[in-house]
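Summarise this fold before class:
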Amino acid sequence: MILEGILVVDPVDGEYVADVEVDAGRVLGIQTSTKKPEAIMMPGFIDIHTHGAAGVDFLLDSDWKQAIRFFAKNGVTTFFPTSVSYPLQELVTFMDRAKEISRKEKMVGGAHLEGPFISVEKKGAQNEQFIKEPSMEDIEKIIQAGPPSTITLAPEVCGNEVVERLVEAGVVVSAGHSNATYKQSLEAFKAGVSRITHFPNGMRALHHREVGIAGAALLHDVYLELIADGVHVSPEMINLIIKIKGYDKIILITESIAAEGLQDGEYELGGKRVLVKDGIARLEDGTLAGSTLSFSRAIKN
């Protein structure tokens, strides 16, 4: 089959219009064209931070087929199932499940642990009863069970020794739900923190006398996750982040919960009741609790 007049968005060669020959899901040939583009073809989306979709909660549910089908229909070709703070043994079970499912489903990446080693002061929608300071025994248990592909932690809670051990084990360490100062953040970057989780949500705010982790992330060479739904981060803030960091250091994420793709209603996240109204997910006290954002909508935004 030949798809005519396609706007090809190529991360290497840029954008151009072409007729594209495809068969059985594979691109066989591309011929540039002068036709007016009728559709867009671009690489599959990779969502490195999603808690669920289509009624599936990756932490709590064992059957992910419905979410996998939903993602495939919406252009996501790889996703990294993400937890929230929960008892350590349950997180080990979650990692085991992700590993087992990924053997059969190529689009399932490694597990992303968001918590439980985070700041209580910056917990956001995380369940405080499951937040804890890590021991090296906890860290070794996580490494031996996974290791996870990524872990989100508060560097001021964990210390640099924990960061260094995780990096040594091949884990991407992302700072999030953190009240770290600028100095603490720089020390964490040197220890191996290379990413910031859902920037600038859930962290010490930028202040003119103490720029904190938000300022450190803007000033230094780390990647920033970004929820581009217009709710977690305003369009003006997104423009500011792009101007400072450039596109190459920004990773779009959805942080979607089980409500993605479904109607408004009542859901759950980490043992907490979540109410979705007008597509916005919040706890009963009004705290944002993940999103219902699709990756295609994030791209458009």
User: Anything to note?
Assistant: The mean pLDDT is 96. The longest strand covers residues 14-23.
